[in-house]
């Protein structure tokens, strides 16, 4: 007879042994932990150059992989636009402060006109500056030759 799954008794025995091993590992970890860490032995990664001091948290990695995964999920979470849209839609009727597409097109058109004017003025200023530099160079050559 080929068995794939362990019997209930085997499963309970394996769980009991795992619990005993976990208790022993925890006891060893408690015995090995130094209650007061040696202040002379700071890791170089803990030095915070901004404050010029050693920090207990600076440069340390999270305690375990689960903590790292939770931090990564928080740090790299992207906003969900559909949920934002649903929140806005559930907020009731649109108010006067909401920009509608025709108003938005007008605002974009005005912004583009301002941007083009600024680019044009910057190009004119640059051309004027270049002309002044060339005139100053010519005048310097004439004065020193």
- SS-derived structural category: mainly alpha
Shape: elongated
Task: Report strand %.
Answer: under 5%
Amount of helix: 55-70%
Low-confidence stretches: none
Count of helical regions: 4
Number of strands: 2
How would you describe the oligomerization state of the chains in this entry? Answer: single chain
Average pLDDT score: 75
Strands in their spatial order, largest beta sheet: 1-2
Straight-line N-to-C gap:
109 Å
Task: Please state the CA-atom Rg, rounded to the nearest Å.
Answer: 35 Å
Order of helices and strands: HEEHHH
Major beta sheet summary: 2 strands, antiparallel
Plain-language structure description:
The protein is mainly α and 145 residues long. The protein has a domain at 106-144. Helix content is 61%, strand content 3%. The protein has helices at residues 8-32, 65-75, 81-89, 101-144, and strands spanning 47-48, 53-54. A two-stranded antiparallel ribbon has the order 1-2. The longest helix has 44 residues, at 101-144. It is elongated and about 100 Å long. The termini are far apart. The mean pLDDT is 75.
Blueprint of the fold:
Layout: H1 8-32, E1 47-48, E2 53-54, H2 65-75, H3 81-89, H4 101-144
Antiparallel strand pairs: 1-2
Brief sketch in words of this structure:
With 145 residues, the chain is mainly alpha-helical. It has helices at 8-32, 65-75, 81-89, 101-144, and strands at residues 47-48, 53-54. The chain is 61% helix and 3% strand.
Keywords:
single chain; 145 residues; mainly alpha; two-stranded antiparallel ribbon; 4 helices; 2 strands; 3% strand
């Amino acid at each position: 007879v080929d068995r794939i799954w362990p019997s209930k008794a085997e499963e309970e025995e394996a769980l009991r042994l795992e619990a005993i091993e976990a208790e022993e590992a925890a006891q060893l970890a408690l015995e090995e932990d130094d209650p007061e860490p040696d202040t002379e032995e700071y890791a170089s990664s803990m030095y915070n150059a901004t404050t010029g001091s050693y920090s207990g948290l600076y440069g340390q990695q999270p305690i375990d992989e689960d903590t790292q995964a939770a931090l990564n999920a928080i740090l790299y979470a992207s906003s969900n636009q559909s949920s934002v849209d649903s929140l806005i839609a559930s907020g009731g009727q649109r108010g006067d402060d909401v920009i509608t597409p025709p108003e938005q097109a007008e605002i974009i058109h005005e912004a583009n006109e301002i941007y083009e004017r600024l680019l044009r003025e910057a190009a004119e200023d640059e051309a004027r500056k270049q002309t002044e530099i060339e005139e100053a160079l010519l005048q310097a050559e004439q004065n020193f030759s």
